[in-house]
Structure formats: C-alpha cells, structure tokens
C-alpha cells in the first residue's frame, strides 16, 4: 500500500487542462509531457508532484477530447491514482490502458482535502484518508488489475502473448 499527497481539483477538469492540446503533436517524450501536466490549472503541479501522489476531483474528470496524453502525463508524473466523483468514459479507458488506476468514489472525493495524505489498497478496495477514515470502492476485475500491474495494456498484452508463444 502506497501513500501520497492529495491534489484536489473541481468538476469538469478536461483533457485540455490536464495536458494542453497545443502540445499534442509537439511533445512526445513522457518526461516532457510531465512538465506540462495541469500547467494552466495548477502551474506548480509538475514541479511539486511526487511519486505516489493522488489526484482527487469532482464530477466528469477527463472530459473533452480522447487525448491519451492526459492519462500518460499523470502516470509519468508518478500519480498513483485518480479518485473522482465521476469520469468521462474515454479518459477512464485511456487511464486504464496507460496503467493509471481511476477510482470512482463520491464520498472520498468530497472528504479528502488538498495536501492530505492518502493511501490506497487496491486489493482490498480501500482508500484510507489522513484522518484514518476508510472509503471502500469495488475491487478492479482481475484482468484490469493485470493491466494496471503490468503498467498498461500494451505491456499486459505483450506478456500474455509471450506466454502463449512458448513452444
């Protein structure tokens, strides 16, 4: 179980705010993507985010375009998960594909405050806030856990294919 600091944002944080569209075709390296993560919403994010930190948000996180860089830049920044009241479907899928856990929990999103320490137990389906308050969420299906543990859909698929090819 990993602990991290909460970065709290509101409703309708769109993909253009998470990773500005002006960089979509100009910035390709993950390390450089991180430098632009949330730059218009929270200019200090890229310099201060630490591995294991958690984003906590309101409704409809990741709305907007299908830009996968939005999930990629957060994962590459070391964000261990995004907890929100709800997610845009395409962001949710892109995040899982990139190996970034996304957890829908209205209660946790409302209770956790900016800067608060948060721990997540993915096996038990629990979010533990700094005040020791525990929020439950449905455990991920085994195949989704496999994708997350492998670091994304591509490494997961390669791993599965290499097991089948052993002849």
Label this structure with key terms:
167 residues; alpha/beta; Aconitase, domain 4; 7-stranded mixed beta sheet; 18% strand
Written account of the structure:
The chain is 35% helix and 18% strand. The chain starts with a strand and ends with a helix. The mean pLDDT is 94. The protein contains 8 helices and 7 strands; from the N terminus they run βαααβαβαβαβββαα. The protein has one domain: Alpha-Beta Barrel (Aconitase, domain 4). It has a 7-stranded mixed sheet. The protein is α/β, with parallel strands linked by helices.
Instruction: Tell me the number of structural domains.
Output: 1
Q: Per the principal axes of the C-alpha atoms, what is the gross shape?
A: globular
In percent terms, what proportion of residues is strand?
15-25%
Number of helices: 8
Strand order of the largest sheet: 4-3-2-1-5-6-7
Q: Give the ordered list of helices and strands.
A: EHHHEHEHEHEEEHH
**In the CATH scheme, what's the topology name?**
Aconitase, domain 4
CATH superfamily: Aconitase, domain 4
Rg on CA atoms, Å: 16 Å
| Share of residues in helices | 25-40%
Largest sheet: 7 strands, mixed
CATH architecture: Alpha-Beta Barrel
User: Between the first and last Cα atoms, what is the distance in angstroms?
Assistant: 37 Å
* Assembly category: single chain
Instruction: Label the structural class.
Output: alpha/beta
Mean pLDDT: 94
What is the CATH class name?
Alpha Beta
Low-confidence stretches: none
**Strand tally, please?**
7
């Amino acid at each position: 179980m990993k602990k991290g600091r909460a970065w709290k944002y509101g409703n309708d944080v769109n993909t253009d705010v998470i990773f500005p569209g002006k960089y979509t075709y100009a910035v390709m390296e993950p390390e450089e993507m991180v430098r632009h993560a949330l730059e218009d919403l929270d200019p200090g994010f890229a310099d201060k985010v630490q591995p294991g930190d958690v984003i906590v948000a309101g409704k409809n996180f990741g709305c907007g375009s299908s830009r996968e860089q939005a999930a990629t830049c957060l994962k590459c920044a070391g964000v261990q998960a995004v907890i929100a009241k709800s997610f845009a479907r395409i962001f949710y899928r892109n995040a899982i594909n990139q190996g970034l856990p996304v957890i829908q929990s209205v209660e946790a999103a409302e209770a956790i405050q900016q800067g608060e320490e948060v721990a997540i137990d993915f096996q038990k389906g629990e979010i533990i806030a700094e005040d020791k308050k525990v929020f439950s969420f449905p455990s991920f299906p085994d195949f989704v856990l496999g994708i997350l543990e492998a670091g994304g859909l591509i490494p997961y698929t390669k791993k599965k294919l290499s097991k089948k090819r052993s002849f």
